[in-house]
Amino acid sequence: MTSALIAALSTACAIWLWTGPNTATTRLDNLLTSPTDHNPTWKALLKLATHLTTTPTPTRRAEAWRRASIELCQSLAAELSAGRTPSESLTRALTAVDLPDPTILRPVMAAARDGGDVCAALTSAAPQAGGEGLRQLAAAWQVSTTAGAGLASLVDRVAHTLRAAQTHRQDVAAQLAGPRTTARMLAALPALGLLMAAALNMHPLSFLFGTLPGLMCLISGITLDVCGLWWTTRMATQAQT
């Protein structure tokens, strides 16, 4: 009877281990599905990562405005070629284009709809970074209004200029991708050196944080590393603009 009980218990344990929940999987599911109740730190990290990945940087925002300006000029030229009035064409183009921040160009749409000063509205609404296209469009609108030139041809020329500038920036960015990667790798080499020293049992952290010469070396190295990254990024940004 004892052997039969042991066999039954062994069978039940085997069935439980085979069909029961996996502890590691259960913990992982709880960690991912309910971070508030089980791990508030994980939820905070997820929020921070989401914020960093979804918040556009100034460079990306400027590029988005440049692309939107090209699309706006192309759409406006198409509407003007269809025989519509400039105000109606601009209103329809603003509605059709996917803008990074449509609220900024609401005064422009109101000026075009109500017969206001479209040139001044475009100039004031153009962002500082990435608003070159809108300012050129405002200049073309001003020339068409004062000199009586054809707005469709002017807008088409502005769109062509913006496309050429965008292509140039993309070519420069592709050529600068290698130097930027090299600079980042060189900036990470000191950390690799510390890992190699620690692997050789040389205790680099004790020297850097425990002695005055080590602390001075640490501060100087971090300063030079940050300055090098900043200088490389500055040169690449100036070459791309």
Automatic annotation (TrEMBL):
It holds the Pfam family T2SSF. Residues 73-196 form the Type II secretion system protein GspF domain. It is found in: Cell membrane. InterPro entries: T2SS_GspF_dom (IPR018076). It comes from the Bacteria. Coiled coil: none annotated. The keyword Transmembrane applies. The keyword Cell inner membrane does not apply. Keywords: Cell membrane, Membrane, Transmembrane, Transmembrane helix. It is a multi-pass membrane protein. The chain crosses the membrane at residues 207-231. PANTHER family: CONSERVED TRANSMEMBRANE PROTEIN-RELATED (PTHR35007:SF4), INTEGRAL MEMBRANE PROTEIN-RELATED (PTHR35007). This is Type II secretion system protein GspF domain-containing protein. It comes from Nonomuraea monospora. The lineage of its organism: Bacteria, Bacillati, Actinomycetota, Actinomycetes, Streptosporangiales.
